[in-house]
Amino acid sequence: VTRIGHGVRAVEDQGLVARLAEEEVTLEVNPGSNLALGLYPDWAAHPVDRLRRAGVAVTLSTDDPPYFHTDLPREYAALSEAFAWTPADFARINRAALAAAFCDAPTRTRLLSQLDPA
User: Fold this and answer.
1) What is the pLDDT along the chain (118 residues), one digit of tens a residue?
2) 29: three-class secondary structure by DSSP
3) CA torsion, ordered 69, 71, 76, 82, to nearest 10 deg
4) For residue 88, what is the enclosing H or E element?
5) How far apart are CA 105 and CA 118, in angstroms?
6) How is the chain split into domains, by residue range?
7) What is the pTM of this model?
8) β-strand pairing of 3-5 with 57-60
């Protein structure tokens, strides 16, 4: 297993969090969706920052933007405010997303070069 969707509840088991980090399993995280569904009361309570700080690779997604009334810019703004994430933090998250992306190596390389121009 290299990717798990909606795996944020892993944070409830520190042994599992350590294993995810050690085995480099990427979690596809949808914070706005999780809040809309009542899993967490607010952005600051969402475990994405704890998972990231524990060394788990995370990606950020919107899940179902029309249903949850969100998009990536809103997710980024809310996470930046809740956790004081910087553009460098988001770049690291996007690099992790590209590393876990279901695409061929040339596509991954091209996208990484756009994220990290020389």
Assistant:
1) 999 999 999 999 999 999 999 999 999 999 999 999 999 999 999 999 999 999 999 999 988 877 778 899 999 999 999 999 999 999 999 999 999 999 999 999 999 999 877 5
2) strand
3) 10
4) helix 87-100
5) 19
6) 3-115
7) 0.90
8) unpaired
Letter for the amino acid at 105? A
First to last CA, the chain: 33
Position 67: which residue type? Y
Q: Which of 23, 26, 29 is nearest to 6 (CA)?
A: 29
54: number of CA atoms within 13 Å, CB side? 26
**Phi-psi map region of 84: left, alpha, beta (phi>0 left; psi -120 to 50 alpha):** left
Helices 72-83 and 87-100, packing angle to 10 deg: 130
Q: Which residue has the tokens 């607010």?
A: 42
